[in-house]
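queue> pop job 88
queue> type: inverse folding (structure -> sequence)
queue> payload:
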């Protein structure tokens, strides 16, 4: 029950435990569940009417250690979980200091210059934002592919740090100081997995979601809160050694079931976002997603499989700004990012300049399909693009929030107050790219919903099927990242 008491913002559970004198200690307890809905007063009325023997209770899961949520009749429990199909998972980058990332590369350089140039030790520690895991005198191992000088931050002279484009939030590409000395939990295995063809699937793993896609994707290294600003878990398609992040035998088994010559890990990723990467999936499985974690109905129909893979490849192409997946047509492949060709009626048109001043207001005119960024106007923006959200996070608003005159991003250091003083022209282009990518996904959603509906009404490969075939459960080592083996000229082979 949410907000039952005025002083409590968190959902409230009331648990009643009954133990009978003749209970059998060898049997699992029977657990029943019910939810109260409506406004506060309505919930109190419902609560007074609850009886232990009325018919408002529902049985929960009867096997294993499971959340206290009701068993469903949708077939959800039969579908394999995403974390089983892509068993190596990880949190995203956890910096624990917000000044190390920014939508402006120039701002990062200014922050770094101020930090390393500070002579007062206490002031420098405040700027750095020391934590248990990173201090001015910490010596951290280099990140795979991103070496840093063999000195501490307090020994660092004025220099230019290495930067990397990352996925801070869904569809929001920002810059990060790629230096392990300033990142508390960088997740080295994720860094090692950066390679051509890599796709990071991301699902909400710690909070329920009730709107927007249940699964997102990016080709950039994701932040720990990439999904919607509130956690999430990353499932790379490839291990750092380039092999598929799937259980042994899964792809071969699916190919056999479907009667196809081959099924690849990227096919499976495309299928996953086609099925779960749209709001209709989330709405259909709203009750099931009260317990975080996506499950995938794997069709046995080769035509539905091929259709979903094709749709999913278009989704990946738009969501990754053209870095992965397959463009919908030849003209799209010629564009930079996910934009539209000149003359295409779906093209976003930049009609009125934003100017040099950084705006602090973002509004939308639904009647004219026009987005206003300060004095600037962008036409050809449908309401679905403006309202597009991921787990309750309005994507366009969130993107602008990091770039407006008074950013709404979290502050952990005085360095966070260093921002751009004039609107960069590249942000205008990035905004057009964002609006174009969202337009493609809005237009693609009906096709995703249609193929998902067909799949849900067709025979599927279940968890039991995969277990009987020896594919599940995955071998224990499948959940660990496999690093590339490199040759050390001074010794035997070793892990990179």
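queue> result:
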């Amino acid at each position: 029950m949410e907000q039952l008491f005025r002083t409590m913002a968190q959902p409230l559970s009331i648990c009643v435990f009954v133990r009978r004198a003749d209970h059998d200690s060898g049997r699992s307890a029977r657990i029943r569940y019910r939810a109260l809905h409506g406004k506060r007063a309505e919930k109190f009325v419902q609560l007074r009417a609850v009886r232990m023997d009325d018919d408002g209770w529902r049985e929960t899961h009867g096997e294993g250690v499971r959340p206290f949520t009701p068993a469903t009749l949708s077939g959800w429990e039969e579908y394999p979980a995403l974390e089983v199909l892509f068993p190596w998972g990880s949190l995203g980058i956890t910096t624990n200091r917000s000044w190390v990332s920014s939508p402006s590369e120039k701002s990062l350089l200014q922050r770094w210059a101020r930090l390393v140039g500070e002579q007062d030790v206490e002031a420098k520690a405040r700027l750095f934002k020391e934590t248990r895991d990173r201090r001015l005198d910490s010596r951290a191992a280099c990140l795979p592919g991103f070496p840093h000088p063999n000195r501490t931050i307090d020994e660092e002279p004025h220099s230019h740090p290495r930067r990397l484009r990352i996925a801070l939030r869904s569809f929001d590409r920002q810059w990060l100081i790629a230096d392990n000395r300033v990142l508390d939990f960088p997740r080295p295995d994720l860094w090692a997995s950066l390679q051509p063809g890599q796709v990071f699937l991301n699902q909400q793993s710690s909070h329920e979601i009730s709107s927007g896609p249940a699964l997102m994707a990016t080709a950039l290294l994701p932040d720990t809160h990439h999904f919607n600003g509130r956690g999430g878990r990353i499932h790379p398609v490839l291990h750092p050694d380039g092999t598929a992040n799937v259980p042994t035998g899964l792809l071969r088994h699916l190919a056999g079931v479907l009667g196809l010559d081959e099924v690849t890990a990227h096919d499976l990723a495309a299928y996953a976002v086609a099925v779960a990467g749209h709001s209709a999936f989330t709405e259909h499985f709203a009750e099931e997603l009260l317990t975080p974690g996506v499950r995938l109905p794997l069709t046995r129909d080769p035509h539905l499989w091929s259709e979903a893979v094709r749709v999913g490849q278009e989704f990946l192409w738009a969501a990754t700004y053209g870095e992965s997946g397959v463009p919908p047509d030849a003209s799209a492949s010629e564009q930079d990012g996910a934009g539209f060709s000149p003359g295409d009626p779906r093209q976003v048109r930049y009609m009125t300049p934003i100017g040099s001043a950084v705006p602090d207001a973002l509004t939308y005119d639904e009647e004219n399909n026009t987005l206003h960024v300060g004095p600037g106007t962008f036409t050809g923006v449908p309401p679905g693009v403006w309202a597009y959200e991921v787990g309750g996070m309005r994507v366009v608003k969130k993107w602008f929030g990091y770039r407006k005159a008074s950013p709404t991003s979290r502050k952990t250091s005085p360095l966070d107050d260093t921002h751009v003083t004039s609107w960069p022209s590249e942000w205008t282009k990035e905004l057009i790219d964002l609006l174009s990518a969202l337009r493609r996904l809005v237009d693609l959603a009906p096709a995703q919903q249609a193929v998902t509906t067909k799949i849900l009404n067709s025979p599927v490969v279940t968890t039991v099927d995969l277990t009987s075939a020896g594919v599940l459960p995955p071998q224990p080592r499948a959940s660990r990242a496999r690093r590339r083996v490199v040759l050390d000229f001074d010794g035997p082979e070793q892990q990179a």
